[in-house]
Design a protein that fits this description.
Elements lengths: L1 E2 L2 E2 L3 E3 L6 E4 L10 E4 L2 H9 L6 H18 L3 H12 L6 H14 L7 H37 L5 E5 L16 H8 L4 E6 L6 H13 L3 E4 L4 H6 L5 E4 L3 E3 L4 E4 L2 H10 L3 E5 L5 E2 L16 H4 E5 L5 E5 L12 E4 L6 E4 L2 E3 L3 H7 L2
Enzyme class: isomerase
EC number: 5.3.1.23
Keywords: Amino-acid biosynthesis, Isomerase, Methionine biosynthesis
Length: 359
């Protein structure tokens, strides 16, 4: 995707051929800074500190993290250590474990002296595969938006999304936002309601940033506005991403997604979840089994923003003596999901629906 006319991915091979470069998402939307990852520890920090975030991008970064680790120690013990370090960074997104399993399967049969080249090659393949999967998600999901545009006789289609599931959450294109980009590029009139997504404000800082960079009309709203918008008939459909989807169709996504799904169900608004195959956890049959990450309470009690003089500062917004809980995700049951938008097509949110696409 483009920023000021220049195409970017969210992660790419460094010019030296032995490092990886990322966009530091903790600095957006106020600054575009590129960070170079040269070691396993730097890759793990990028994931845990949310310099990179979004389930597919976490997986891609973990793949490069393994490649960086192989430069230091290409033995079986080095490979196992790299996977342990990276797996411990974020517990909810299944793409992380999927990418590590892919790297292990590719590298274990190779002799140690071939593992560095093999790891960088496989990491690049994982990135390219993610881009293609997201492009196809966009193609399949665009049809849903087109159908609404036809029913509305060309009037603007209003879409509500939660958190960031655009190209910043993947290697390129995105999941939930990919259909919107495809529809916009085709000339369909679309408008996006962007939930701010407390406590880290990924909607206000990231989704709004990339939609604006692409020229897509959008409006930032407080997280609790979605139900009112649906009651007022101002939302045609909801599209969100997912960090882990169980075999029966339950979905773990950013905290607050469940409430949007409930409001959508109550108001007859379609609620779609966009995902690549790497986000499906076939080992779980119930969303209640998904581990829910709990992050530092300071993300709730403090907020970062830009002052009138341009400085970026973090300030407290709660009484110092008050405790805070920071659950990063919630689970939306399959019964509240209209359907899944995948790289293989649109399907019901159920075991049967997923099995139709992924035998």
């Amino acid at each position: 995707m483009n920023i000021d006319g220049k195409p970017y991915r969210t992660i790419w091979l460094g010019s030296d051929g032995v490092s990886a470069e990322i966009i530091d998402q903790t600095k957006l939307p106020f600054a575009l800074e590129i960070v170079t990852l040269r070691t396993l520890e730097e890759a793990a920090h990028a994931i845990s500190s949310m310099q990179v975030r979004g389930a597919p991008l976490i997986g891609a970064t973990a793949a490069y993290g393994v490649a960086l680790a192989m430069r230091e120690d290409a033995s079986d013990a080095g490979l196992a250590r790299a996977c342990d370090v990276l797996a411990a960074t974020r517990p909810t997104a299944v793409n992380l474990r999927w990418a590590l399993d892919e790297m292990v399967a590719h590298l274990q049969p190779l002799p140690a002296d071939a593992r560095v080249a093999g790891a960088f090659a496989r990491a690049a393949e994982i990135c390219d595969q993610d881009v293609e999967a997201c492009r196809k998600i966009g193609e399949h999901g665009m049809g849903l938006i087109e159908a609404h545009a036809e029913r509305k006789k060309g009037e603007t289609v209003n879409i509500l999304t939660h958190c960031n599931a655009g190209w910043l959450a993947t290697v390129d294109w995105g999941t939930a936002l990919a259909p919107i980009y495809k529809a916009f590029d085709k000339g369909i009139s679309v408008h996006v309601w962007v939930d701010e997504t407390r406590p880290r404000n990924q909607g206000a800082s990231l989704t709004a940033f990339e939609l604006g960079a692409h020229g897509v009309p959008h409006t930032i709203v407080a997280d609790n506005t979605g139900g009112h918008l649906m009651q007022a008939g101002l939302v045609d459909l909801c599209i969100v991403g997912t960090d882990r989807t169980t075999a029966n169709g339950d979905v773990a996504n950013k905290i607050g997604t469940y409430l949007k799904a409930l409001a959508a169900k109550d108001n007859g608004v379609q609620f779609f979840v966009a995902l690549p195959h790497s986000t499906i956890d076939w080992t779980l049959d119930d969303g209640r089994e998904i581990p829910i990450e709990q992050r530092d309470a300071s993300e709730v009690t403090h907020m970062t923003g830009q002052l009138p003089d341009g400085k970026v500062e973090t300030v407290a917004i709660a009484p110092p003596a008050s405790r805070a809980a920071n659950y990063a995700f919630d689970v939306t049951p399959a019964r509240l999901v209209t359907g899944f938008i995948t790289e293989r097509g649109v399907t019901p949110a159920s075991r049967e629906g997923l099995s139709l696409l992924y035998s």
